[in-house]
Amino acid sequence: MLAENFIDCFVPAILYLLQNKIKLAVNDCASDTEVLSNYFKKLCEEAGFPMKVAWVEGDGVTEVANKLIDKGEKFESLMHEKALEELKLEPLCAQACVGGLGIAEALRHDLIECASYVCGGYFSGFKDMLKQIKNLNVGFPIAEFHADGSRVIIKENNGGIIIVGSVSSQLLYQIQGPLYCGSDVVAHLEGIKIEQVGEYRVRIIGFKGPSTNHQHRWNEDQIRESLDAANIAKFSLLKFHVNVTSPLDARNQDAATVDFRVFAQSRDRELLRRGNPRGFFRLSMVTFLKLVHGASLGNDMPQAEGTIDSSSARRRRHSGLWAGLRHCGFDDVRFYNSLTQAEIHSGKTSKLGMHVWNKQGIVGCGVLIDFVSYDQKNGTKYDTASFYAITLPKLEDHVWSNSY
């Protein structure tokens, strides 16, 4: 899926792509690639620098997937260890990565496909990188191709790493075995050699064939470094939180996952605007491919921008804890019930909480529903530590049967 903020960063780069004769390949799975190619061609023309834009199509396999489901294919989730039928979800579409030859012609190298991975992002030796302060300014790799078929992976700045270990890790991440099978091309990897040929330089030869507790600190350091001191000074609050912990030998992906959140407040609206290439959201997001191994993004992107409301409207409303910190007055940054930041930091306030509802009532845009009693009534059993979908029909049945 094409990231919306890619467009915000693409337009300023058009001139540099043209001047340096750079070929740019974009992974926009699940998008209409032809429509996108026409759109990006138009952006180049509007900028005064028309360029050739091509696309690869044919990844829509929804019809094939539905036929397999009808024949009994279970499509078991690797994350939840449950079949599609157990999840009670109706597939909207199915995509498959295709066009390997065309992509290979554009990129001609898979070790740099995941950007900062080969420079130390997601690298298992991250503790050593922390000791050497190599987790900052990790950067992106460059692949040199030579006439003898060898290639050298390099980088330009002094952050991150390019070593045999990081290159080997990225290669192992990409392959399934001695044969690297793409959709329409296979690379033979027997006999390849990876060697250090200089600082930030690793050479690979021999390709054959046709054409979690230190993790949050790693990411926090990167985000702070990318924001720089001038931007950090504009925040009235910038906190990094790690919610829950992962047990040893977790039984599935859900149990092995912890939640890492960044909470930011600022009176500078532009700093928090998601479309700003130099704003909080974008500068935080560019660290994603530089993270420690195993990190993945949450899907609730709108929370990255937050909400600013007029204080005169919000202070007259009453709120409990959950919604009370999502809205604030712009002029003096007061929250629901006229709560101030100083009161929040003091830890002694009682202006927010469920007891306020009991005394004064609540004005809100949602209703609390007791879904546990509904499941108990209908004999539904589920593991609270695993994925469980509350479908719309179930929700409507519970609401109408209890006269909410």
Task: Summarize the structure in short.
The chain is of the alpha+beta class and 404 residues long.
SSE blueprint:
Layout (H helix, E strand, L loop, with lengths): L3 H16 L13 H14 L15 H9 L13 H4 L12 H8 L18 H6 L10 E4 L5 E4 L9 H11 L4 E3 L4 E3 L4 E6 L2 E5 L9 H18 L2 E9 L15 E8 L2 H4 L7 H6 L25 H4 L6 H4 L16 H6 L7 H7 L10 H7 L14 H10 L3
Task: Provide structural commentary.
- The chain is α+β, with helices and mostly antiparallel strands and 404 residues long.
- It folds into 4 domains: 108-211, no CATH class; 214-306; 307-363, no CATH class; 371-401, no CATH class.
- 33% of the residues lie in helices and 10% in strands.
- It is built from 16 helices and 8 strands.
- The protein has helices at residues 4-19, 33-46, 62-70, 84-87, 100-107, 126-131, 164-174, 215-232, 269-272, 280-285, 311-314, 321-324, 341-346, 354-360, 371-377, 392-401; strands at 142-145, 151-154, 179-181, 186-188, 193-198, 201-205, 235-243, 259-266.
- Strands 1-2-6-5 form a 4-stranded antiparallel beta sheet, covered by helices on one side. It has a two-stranded antiparallel sheet with strand order 3-4. The chain has a two-stranded antiparallel sheet with strand order 7-8.
- A hairpin with a 5-residue loop joins strand 1 and strand 2.
- The longest helix is centred in the middle third of the chain and has 18 residues, at 215-232.
- It is globular, with a radius of gyration of 25 Å.
- Residues 308-324 have low confidence and may be disordered.
